[in-house]
Task: structure prediction
Amino acid sequence: MHPMLNTAVKAARRAAAVINRASFDLDRVGVTEKQHNDFVTDVDTAAEQAIIEVLQKAYPTHAFLGEESGTTGNVNDESEFVWIIDPLDGTTNFMHGFPQYAVSIALQQRGVITLGVVYDPVRNDLFTAEKGAGSYLNDKRIRVRKLDRIAGALLGTGYKNGSPKALDEYLKMYGLMAERCHGVRRAGSAALDLAYVASGRLDGFYEKNLQPWDIAAGSLLVTEAGGIAGEFNGESNYMNTGHIVAASPRVFGQMVGLLAEFA
Result:
């Protein structure tokens, strides 16, 4: 395992320790509503700080893009190493004791995601990927599930609370996809959904209006597991647009064919 990936795993486990301690007494967790139905807890903040402390100690010249702390260093310098961090993807789930959330850490070098870690502290599932070296779950190589037709697929999706128009669009997409596959699940953590695509637990995932920290690590897991990640129109600019479709190759093509009208 690459030394930087080892360090990212160490940081993810440090954050998970913060999260696990807090999960035993959720009534004491401080919660702030950033905007309607978009929450941050003091656990998010503490977990992100734990991650940054580990990474900054090892790599003091690197830049950071964190969901809670924002940017540190020159994240726009393409020569920079930039760590992209979501300390608790699935905060609403965590607040309610719903066991579907994860720590997500990715490394971007010269505009390319080169390392990714998604760690599920509930199941102790560690998903890792290194560009050109494959994706792994608990040190075992994983691949997307081989599936020829979307009709046999189990898909994941998500929805960021927004305008009535955005909700209407989401419901139209949901209905369209649900009619054509085995089922659609909205579990509440994009990072874990993407990790599940990489490991074959899901056959595809789609969502709009995500942030880089939601998808950076998970998208690398998918591509290194033999899948494809792209926008709703099939283009590859999802890190900037926040609109992502991820699946095994044949299912990806069929999903894009159905979702292109929402691009």
User: Anything to note?
Assistant: The chain has a mean pLDDT of 92.
